[in-house]
Amino acid sequence: MGEALKHPVAWIALAASPIVVLGWSGTAPKIKFTEVGQQSGATYQHRTRRFQGPHGDVLRMFTSGGAAAAVGDYDGDGFDDIFVTDSDTGRRNHLLHNNGNFTFTDVAEQAGVAGGNDPLSIVSDAIFFDYDNDGRQDLLVARFGTPILYHNEGNGKFRDVTATSGFNKFGNTIAVIAFDYDNDGLLDVMFGNYFKPVNLLDLRTPYVLPNDLDNAVNGGGVTLWRNLGNGRFVDVTEKAGFGKHTGWTLDIGHADLNNDGFQDVYLACDYGTDRIFFNNGDGTFRDATEKSIGFDTRKGMNVDIADYDNDGWLDIYVTNITDEYMKECNMLWHNNHDGTFTDVSKETNTCATLWGWAAKFGDFDNDGWPDLFVVNGLRSGSKENYIPVLLNMITKPGIDFTDIRSWPNIGNMTWSGYQKKKMFRNLAGGEFAEISAAAGVDNDLDGRGIAVADFDNDGRLDLFQTNADQRSLLYRGVTQGGGNWVQFQLTGTKSNRDAIGARIRIRTGGLTQIREIDGGNGYAGQSMKRAHFGIGKATAVEDVEIRWPSGRVEKIGSVAANRLHRIVEGQGRVRENDTNGNK
Amino acid sequence: MRLTIVALLLTIGTAPAENPPGEEVFEQGIRALASKDWDRALGYLEAALTAEPDNMRYGSEYRQAVLRRAQTLHPKEGQPQDFERALKFFERLLTKCPTAANAHLNYGFAYVDKIPAAGAITQVILANTALGEFTRSLELNPSWIGYYTRGVSYLFWPKIFGRAKQGVSDLETALQMQKAAPKQPYHVRTWIALGDGYWKTDELDKAHSAWQEGLKQFPESVALQARLAKNGDDLKDLVESSLDPNKRVDTNLKDLWVKP
User: Fold this and answer.
1) Would the pLDDT of A582 be above 80?
2) pTM (two decimals)
């Protein structure tokens, strides 16, 4: 059935036909992926930045991210494309054009988006978003440096508009999201910064590393930039209430966590406590960490948000380090519906994923319950292990952790390397079962980012995995006997055109599910902006409701299964025959 | 060795003919504790220890008071700062009386008491610092409790650090010392820990032998029975659970002076 639905035009044809029924048996389908990166032309070797000088090795170790992927349909052909970053000096980024047949062509040079790794800047993350609401996906490249904003010119080319964008502030940025924090119809931007804003490539002081390995407060924090609507952004970090956060931010997640119609923010921080900020609805946020989740000392790496138990409230998944020598446990923050969260990672079997990096929810078997894929692994090198070397350093009395000279070189030693990835199948909301080997995704590369998308439009989610200093992987979803599904592509009119922050609620049988469109949640990976729902045996969705960021609530009624529905704010379901949803 | 044990027991457990210099103020501290008057209680107990720095019971009760206060103020494990008072006190005490072996032991335990309230990396630093104090205590007084304590501490370290063998060595020494002394109920702990140490160093036969020998001498030991009843992953889960650095370790030394 997959082939028939590979082109959007085919979906429209099906829309007029009787409901398509998948052969879902009701027994648990086996989630299955096949790695097709090489044959698809979608695998690229990443290289972390090599630093000069006697402590270059330590700096490289501390900046071993930068392998990121962003998904977006930049040319509006109905097939999601992938932007893949590289990080070493002079290395080029990749814009992988989706050819529609599960092959990809790198068009970064022609498109003008390959650069960014100059001698004083390191590319670290990226997102597609339509900042000017012109219907085309623009591209924002985050760096240890100043970011680069590319405007999508609509002819397969991008134009660097950084100079006029207002994005002029240096930051050691490792994470970036786009969301409309003030619901004014324009997408704003938040950067998550790891180190404080000193240029590591032109180091003037050796005191740049964390001041405490469990409670550091000398990191880069975040910056929030308000979109003024004229192509310019202005720094509102202090005004919005984020100025006091000085943690080592590794990832940012946004969502309406308290169901008040405004986007809230969760910050995953290395070397110390995560932070949760609730949106006051007046352009400011309040730090609710203490009451909401409590302070922690863990090594937060990732934020992804989904309603894993289908109770109508969004939950949060954060990866930490749970390895032989450090047992932090991840956090699956169950939403208590009162502004507080309870960590249920142990109870749900999602606690231990070794040295965690990105994690993404997705209904990989279309049974109506979001599953979870987690990548891990810091550095796979020689047989010699860095941990005992590190122990000697950290237990030295009076050691100054901030001083780069305190840290021993890692050379080619292994540190939490060769770790098997984890795929957790959601067993209907209460527990998860780890099935990575059977699912075919238990690679042992040094994972960083995950982008989830349906690259072949067959209703089965695919995965793109980035790896530090290693090649990327593309997993094609090939699950047989999975459930039926629906996808929604939303276009805002009063709301931001990408509909980031929109909430879709569907009802099938006795099950109600919600999704929110996000603007880059999850470490080093932006997933598709379509909302994907598995609906199991159901052959239609009984009710669909969209709550737009503008506040408009739109009831769509019943829609058919196994197709993509394009919905325009205020117009309901649009049965357009183009691929961009705007006719 | 026998003399050491006798001397130790005299210090920590036997009723002296006359009240030791700190006893009165110690009792005042215990009474203040009962009414949860934390600051007064800790003050009295610190005064008792200042009068008798090497008194293991005073030191242990003082740490337990600090722990109870921490868990009352900040439920579950307390906050890291709740344990600072005890650490600073022992540091001052040992600056004045650097040869008080039991004070070093309690100082080490004060670091251990803080571990569950600390972050994962700070836990490593605390555990390592505690080991240093246990070693200093042993250098001053090579006692059974010193070897047992340091031996068990080594076992809590993950395998990657390769410290379990040192733990086994200390526990073997502790075993020799207890064999040369009158049998005490708490001696069962050495058999349990030594078996766990052998298990952790992949000497499963020796682990079973230690547990079996221990059970002969302490047939009521539930911990030994449980280990001998399990195999494979079940045994692994049991031993690893008992050596989980994230769980609070019972550092109350009252078994040494309270008759069962």
Assistant:
1) no
2) 0.92
